[in-house]
Write a structure and sequence with these properties.
The chain is mainly alpha-helical and about 100 residues long.
């Protein structure tokens, strides 16, 4: 078995272990700047379809990316950054055209 296949099996087993689907409450105090940066980093990682993707992202169950995007949106909403984030995305998209 190749190393990548073994790692994929390991990550699949970790994600399927008991309790991994339980909801947890995380109380964080972070700046809006950090929320915005974290959201952008998470989105970049989720939308990167690079063949070099490995680790947990390569073993991510179907639907997990959508759930993580919802978490990002919740964080942006709680930090009152939804509109700013959308405007930054549109500026980035316009710049890349």
């Amino acid at each position: 078995m190749e190393n990548n296949q073994m790692m994929s099996v390991l990550y699949d087993a970790l994600l399927a272990s008991p309790g991994m689907n339980e909801l947890v409450k995380i109380d964080l105090k972070v700046s809006r700047k950090q929320v915005l940066l974290l959201g952008q980093v998470m989105e970049a990682g989720l939308t990167n379809n690079s063949p070099e993707t490995s680790g947990l992202l390569s073993a991510m169950p179907e639907g997990s990316a959508k759930e993580l995007m919802e978490v990002i949106q919740q964080c942006m909403g709680k930090a009152e950054l939804t509109e700013l984030s959308q405007k930054l995305k549109s500026l980035t998209a316009a710049k890349n055209k």
